[in-house]
Design a protein that fits this description.
This protein is mostly helical. The chain has 4 helices and no strands. The protein starts with a helix and ends in a 16-residue tail after the last helix.
Length: 115
C-alpha cells in the first residue's frame, strides 16, 4: 500500500517516505519472484517466465492508456484516480500472492559463483 502514500504526501518528507517505502516493496517483490518462478514454473521455468512477462506487458500497456487519459483530462482528480487504481492493483496482486502455497527454500544451484 506504499503507492497509496503518494496521494497523502503533501510535502517533501512525506514524499520521500512514500518513495522509499514503494522502492523497498518493489525490491522485495523482485527478490521473491525468482523462487516463485522456479517453484511454479515446473520443468519449463523459461516458458512460465515469458508468460509472466507477457502479462506484465499487457498491464503496462493498459497503464499507459490510462495515463494518457489522465494527461488529456489534466485534473488532480484524474491523477489521484490513477494512483489509487495502481494501489488497488498492487493490493489485488498481494491477495493472489498470499493465497499461493509457501515455497520451501532450496539449495543454490551450482554455477561459476558457487565455489
Amino acid at each position: 500500500m506504499a503507492t497509496a502514500g503518494f496521494v497523502l504526501a503533501d510535502g517533501f518528507w512525506p514524499f520521500v517516505v512514500a518513495v522509499s517505502t514503494a522502492t523497498g516493496a518493489k525490491a522485495a517483490g523482485l527478490a521473491a519472484r525468482a523462487p516463485l518462478i522456479r517453484h511454479h514454473g515446473g520443468d519449463r521455468p523459461q516458458e512460465f517466465r515469458s508468460y509472466l512477462r507477457a502479462v506484465t506487458n499487457v498491464g503496462i500497456s493498459l497503464g499507459a492508456l490510462l495515463a494518457g487519459w489522465a494527461v488529456q483530462v489534466g485534473t488532480l482528480d484524474a491523477y489521484r484516480i490513477l494512483v489509487v487504481g495502481n494501489a488497488l492493483a498492487f493490493a489485488a496482486a498481494a491477495v493472489v500472492l498470499v493465497a499461493l502455497p509457501p515455497v520451501a527454500p532450496s539449495p543454490a544451484a551450482g554455477g561459476p559463483r558457487s565455489s
